[in-house]
Every structure is written in structure tokens, then in C-alpha cells.
Amino acid sequence: MRISKVLLLLASATLALAQQAVVSKGILIGEDKTDKNAKGAEIYKNPQNHQSAAASIIAGVAKIQGYEPYALDPTESSKVFGRFERQFRRLPGFHAGQQDEIVLRLTSDLNQIERAIKEAYPDIGSVSIAKALRELVPSSTKHPQAKYWVLSVVAIDMDPLGIVDAKLFALFIQLNVDGDGKVTLPSEQTSYLNIANIEVDTDYMTAHADELFARFEVATTHEFEVYFTSPEEDVLTQWLHPDTGRQSVLDF
Question: pTM for the full model?
């Protein structure tokens, strides 16, 4: 009986020590239609500029919540990601859309992971989303206690009718990490991909342009991508070519 209690205590301690980690990437799907000469409230007033307006509000709210992926350690990001995820669904100037949860059966093959995401999410931009999520799988980490990871992609898109939407993807996976921080993927696992969809409320954004400009500093879509992308040292993928052109610091 005493041995069983000891084993139970050891199991509980192991679970408590297992840290969570969040790594992120920001992407723009398609071409940025924003007028490069637009300034100030015009970013919110003119629907042509609403990709940049969306970028500004999403990054601004993330900063208010303390979620700064470009600067935070993955284990620190995990402490504030939930707050950002909840706020994402009720951003000012947006309509809340459909929320989806997709069950994925994954293997240790990175190509299979990418295929599984594309097959489960056959939407516009699925190729870019699947590639971005795959690239977030680390090959090593400075956090050997981190067993449970969230791979997050924040994406902005504009449809052919000029309607801008944004999506937050969160893929929950488990990784095997040895004492040296080397990462391997389990041979099989059941994972969950959560997708939050929001759409720019064009009428609201246009009518409240001055108010939104006063609340949120303007960010370009490139700055949005930089802001939401974790430092490369936290996403050390030995299977992929590094993105050497990405900035490491963004000061909003």
C-alpha cells in the first residue's frame, strides 16, 4: 500500500514538473492591398487598408494581454497565450465567426503532419497554414521539461470581395524531450487543432476609425508577422532552412 502511494506521488510530481510551451508564427495569406501612403485613421477608415487595420488591432490587443511571441520565451508565452486566445474571439472591429476543433491522428513524420492538417482543413490558405505549423515543430529546445506544446499561427487574409478575416490556429501536441533538449515526436498521437475565425466589421471599423486609431498604434502586415513569430532559437528545426530574413525585435 505504501509503495502504491509513493508511485502515485512520483507520478503527480512528474506531471507537475512537465512544463507547457507555446511557439508562434504570424502570416499574411495572399498579397497586401494596403495603400502604402495611407496614414493615421485612414488605415481604419478605408476598407482597402483593412489588412493593416486588422494587423494593428490583433497585435495591439496581444500586447495589452502581455502576449509578445517575438520576445517571450516559449514557456513564458504559455502563461499568457490563453488570455490572448480568449480576447481574439472578441476583438473590437470584428465579427466573431465559427470556432472549430479538429482531431488529428499524427505520427513522427513531419510530412504526415503537414498532410494531415491540409486534409483536415481544406480551406483557402490551407497549404500556407499547414506549412507554417509544421515549421514550428522544434528539433531541440532549451526547455527539456516542456512536454506539451502549442503550435500557434495567426493569419490574416482578404477574400476576392475585399473582406478581411483573421484566424488563430492552435495545434496541441506532445513532444518527447531528452535531458539534452533533443526533441523527437511520438510514433503516434492524437492531437487537436483549434481554429478561431473572425471577420472585419467594415461598417464599424469605418465609422469608428478615429477611436480605433487612438487605441491602437498602426502596424504594417510585415510588423504583424514579425510580432507573432517566435525567435528562431526557440524553433530550431534541423529539417528546414532557417528564415534568415526575419527581424528578431519589434518595438510597438
Answer: 0.84
Helix (H) or strand (E) holding 165: strand 164-174
Q: If you compute the radius of gyration of the chain from its CA atoms, what whole number of angstroms results?
A: 19
H or E stretch covering 198 = strand 188-200
- Bridge partners for 57 per DSSP: none
Whose cell is 505549423? That residue is 133
- Share of the chain residues as helix, strand and coil, in percent rounded to the nearest 5: 40, 25, 35
CATH of domain 20-234: 3.40.198
Which candidate, 158, 162, 159, 167, places its Cα nearest to that of 26? Answer: 167
Q: Amino acid letter at 78?
A: S
Separation of CA 199 from chain center:
17
Beta bridge mates, 194:
101, 170
Residue 4 burial (CB < 10 Å; 0-12/13-18/19+)? exposed
Q: 57-82 pLDDT, tens per residue?
A: 999 999 999 999 999 999 999 999 99
Alpha carbon distance 162, 17 (integer Å): 48
Integer Cα distance of 115 and 104 in angstroms: 11
C-alpha cell at 164: 478581411
H-helix or E-strand spanning residue 10: helix 2-17
